Write the structure tokens for this entry.
Amino acid sequence: MNNSELLWRALAPRPRLLLLDEPLGALDRALRERLMLELREILTSRIITALYVTHDQTEAFAVADRVAVMNGGQVEQVATRLTFTTVRLTHLSPDSWVSRTSFPAE
């Protein structure tokens, strides 16, 4: 079963919370860029909150409303994606950002 089939199976029962751990990681860049926008649309239109784990900053900002930056297993900061793109809030360099956990609209 491929990732998109697994995603649709997870969405079928209309969950209130969905955990997505690197759901687009195995895809080529062009397909990943297309699907991240589709995924955001699906989650927001169905009003599903998702905990979305990724190491890809572009992917996190494309899918998320809010982003949590983790370092060494600890949350360093949480902010909206707009805040992260306009103001540098953390002392960490982007290379130190281990993962980003995204939260679509509540």
Q: What stands out?
A: The first helix runs from residue 3 to 11. The two ends are 30 Å apart (CA to CA).
